[in-house]
DNA sequence: AATCTTAGCAACCGCTCGAAA
DNA sequence: CTTTCGAGCGGTTGCTAAGAT
């Protein structure tokens, strides 16, 4: 088992880096940039291979690294992302500013992996390490939906929730399956009936934290009026106490008319006016109903890391996340709305369209 | 106190991918 | 089209320190 090809050409040092080596590498890269990594050790005066230099810089010397132990929020995010992305550490790390894929991988293998095996830890992680209940509150008449609670869970963690690109759906129509049981990763959601309950406040909904990672958005949808006209003017609605939420009474999770269609990232736009909508047609009961689902997310007030390569977009800071459905604005606390997820992203969905030549 | 075990972490290795020749 | 090379990724190894025996 020999060294990498770039390491065979010269005598290279291996093993831990000395402070002197670190200093040489930092001085060189901060002055000249890394350029071609294979030429870095020569120019920096290091007896290392370029690959080793690259790794040392990326995983340890980069100035934007966070260091230190992972916060509970980061741990919860890693768990959430891993449940969707699997061992794609680089993808996961992209959503953790200042963390490297190596760091996330080590943390997972040395810490989370074992703990998550136990049901107890799993429940704790999903509960957000804090308050044991999440709260969704709809404030009428301002039509603001506020998710209270500083803990983490995903808004759109369900890949099935992401809409196909509009160009593939001129009518923006999605059909919903009669049951969610066949949707991947949705097993737990069938228990939603048993764990959702309404508090004594008519506009106050309490969700069992163990299931809260499953899209509070859906709770919101389930309480949207059924007679919304997506083509009509902006209208208000009431978020009513309709009794217990019945997962069977309305649609839960959108599927795709064509299973081969790719889910896409919600469109990100610069202002609320650009938010667009899709209709969802429920076909799980004798009478169909149509609701409007926002396909646009307005991040104008927030620090968003846009990256076309990302599978998910992470909100880093911010006060409130302004969303809108069917022309009806509402806000969400981004400390809760940590991630907006999608399994795939179509080119051009995130970025502004190229101007015509 | 000595030895063994374990956890955490840094670094390495082999592989894939994409760009360039 | 094929080859080469660099960058990046995920799996794995190996070192060190702390804890257990």
Summarize the structure in words:
- With 357 residues, this protein is an alpha+beta fold.
- It is 25% helix and 16% strand.
- It has helices at 5-8, 19-32, 40-44, 50-61, 72-85, 89-93, 101-117, 119-126, 192-195, 216-222; strands at residues 134-139, 144-148, 173-175, 196-198, 204-207, 267-268, 277-282, 289-294, 296-297, 303-304, 312-317, 321-325, 328-332, 339-341.
- The strands form five sheets. A four-stranded antiparallel β-sheet has the order 2-1-5-4. Strands 3-7-8 form a three-stranded mixed β-sheet, with no helix packed on it. Strands 10-11-14 form a three-stranded antiparallel β-sheet, with no helix packed on it.
- The chain binds a DNA duplex (21 and 21 nucleotides) through residues 1-7, 14-17, 36-38, 50-52, 54-56, 58-60, 87-90, 101-103, 105-107, 109-111.
Please provide the ordered H/E string of secondary-structure elements. Answer: HHHHHHHHEEEHEEHEEEEEEEEE
Overall pLDDT confidence: 44
Low-confidence stretches: 1-9, 118-357
Query: What is the first-to-last residue Cα distance?
Result: 53 Å
* Class by SSE composition: alpha+beta
Q: Largest sheet, described in full?
A: 4 strands, antiparallel
Strand line-up of the largest beta sheet: 2-1-5-4
What is the approximate shape? elongated
Strand composition percent: 15-25%
- Percent range of helical residues: 25-40%
Rg to the nearest angstrom? Answer: 24 Å
Number of strands: 14
Helix count equals 10
Supply database-style keywords.
16% strand, four-stranded antiparallel sheet, alpha+beta, three-stranded mixed sheet, 357 residues, 14 strands, DNA-binding
């Amino acid at each position: 088992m020999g060294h990498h090809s770039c390491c065979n050409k010269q005598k290279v040092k291996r093993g831990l880096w000395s402070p002197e080596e670190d200093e040489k590498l930092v001085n060189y890269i901060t002055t000249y940039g890394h350029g071609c990594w294979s030429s870095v050790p020569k120019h920096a005066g290091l007896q290392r291979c370029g690959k080793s230099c690259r790794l040392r810089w990326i995983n340890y010397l980069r100035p934007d690294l966070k260091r230190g132990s992972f916060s509970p929020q980061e741990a919860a995010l890693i768990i959430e992302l891993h449940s969707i992305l699997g061992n794609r550490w680089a993808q996961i790390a992209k959503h953790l500013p200042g963390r490297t894929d190596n760091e996330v991988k080590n943390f997972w293998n040395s810490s989370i992996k074992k703990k998550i095996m136990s049901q107890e830890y799993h429940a704790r992680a999903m509960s957000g390490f804090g308050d044991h209940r999440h709260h969704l509150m709809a404030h009428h008449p301002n039509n603001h939906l506020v998710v209270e609670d500083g803990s983490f869970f995903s808004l759109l963690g369900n890949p099935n929730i992401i809409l196909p690109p509009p160009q593939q759906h001129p009518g923006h129509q999605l059909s919903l399956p009669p049951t969610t049981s066949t949707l991947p990763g949705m097993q737990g959601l069938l228990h939603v009936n048993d764990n959702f309950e309404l508090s004594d406040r008519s506009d106050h909904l309490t969700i069992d934290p163990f299931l809260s990672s499953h899209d509070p958005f859906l709770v919101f949808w389930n309480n949207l009026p059924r007679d919304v006209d997506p083509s009509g003017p902006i209208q208000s609605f009431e978020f009513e106490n309709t009794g217990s939420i019945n997962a069977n009474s309305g649609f839960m999770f959108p599927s795709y008319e064509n299973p081969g269609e790719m889910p896409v990232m919600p469109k990100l736009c610069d202002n609320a006016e650009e938010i667009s909508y899709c209709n969802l047609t429920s076909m799980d009961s004798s009478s169909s109903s149509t609701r409007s689902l926002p396909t646009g997310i307005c991040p104008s007030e927030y620090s968003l890391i846009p990256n076309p390569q990302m599978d998910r977009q992470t909100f880093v800071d911010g006060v409130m996340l302004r969303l809108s459905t069917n022309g009806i604005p509402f806000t969400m606390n981004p400390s809760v709305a940590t991630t907006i997820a999608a399994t795939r992203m179509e080119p051009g969905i995130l970025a502004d369209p190229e101007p015509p030549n």
